[in-house]
Amino acid sequence: MNCPTLLIVDDDATLLQTLGRALSGNYRVLLADGASEAFAILGSESVDLVLSDYHMPEVSGLEFLKQVAIRHPDVMRLLFSAEPDVGMAIKAVNQGDVFRILTQPVDLAELQVTLHVATERLQVERENRVLRAILQGHPLLVAEFEAQMARSWACPPASHLRPEARSRAANH
Predict the structure, then answer these.
(1) Which residues are paired to 8 by β-bridges?
(2) Domain CATH number, residue 85
(3) CB contact at 8 A, 80 and 103
(4) pTM of the model
(5) CB burial readout 102-114, b (16+ within 10 A) else e
(6) What residue numbers bound the domain in which 56 lies?
(7) How far apart are alpha carbons 36 and 143 in whole angstroms?
């Protein structure tokens, strides 16, 4: 991935500008002050990552990211909030397929590391999709791939267990 495109969505113009300047060295940064503007950008630009505030006036960041997941499933989604709680975090992961949740005020070093990890994961996911597409046309490669995967996930025998535990494990 040459220079990933990051869309930051927040209704705080000062924060948008601050994050935009801080991250522009490693990302092509696009800024939106709400979900409507963000969807317009997503419709016209190729975006790799979306970082959205949770509290926005027209729609919550979670609702926005749920729609992004449906409309643009290849985009890595991140959420930040001044008041994250467990319930919000569970919904974000389960409903919005959010990669990470960050707290505000955003720690720039943490954000940069998180974006780096998200970008690497996105790259691996994209490469896997390409490899799977290539394999679909080659049945022998698919068989070899499946054999390799079966070997890599094979569990070793329970030889480290005491004899009575080993016999219980073998009976299950």
Answers:
(1) 31, 51
(2) 3.40.50.2300
(3) yes
(4) 0.75
(5) bebebeeeebeeb
(6) 5-131
(7) 46
